[in-house]
Write a structure and sequence with these properties.
Length: 97
Amino acid sequence: MVGLARPGLVGAASVQLEAATTTVIQAAVPPSQAAGVLGLADSLMVGAGVVGALVAPLMTQPAGTRAVLVLAGLAAAAVAPAFSRRRLVQDNGSGLT
């Protein structure tokens, strides 16, 4: 039963990410462009999962799992400010807070 906790947590995080992405896109993009942007966002998320599944084993063998996870977390933290909600509000003026 404990072995199911991690995949369940990953699934819940994936659903949360998808919901947050959709919400931000709907608020920040004009309705005439929303379908294309949502399609692109979904394609990028699926593509990132495929690339991650292919690259992760190659990276963990020489560096170790912990080092790869720390590196991925640092990379995500480094690029997060570029995609913050506040920046979307300032750029678009949509009123999303």
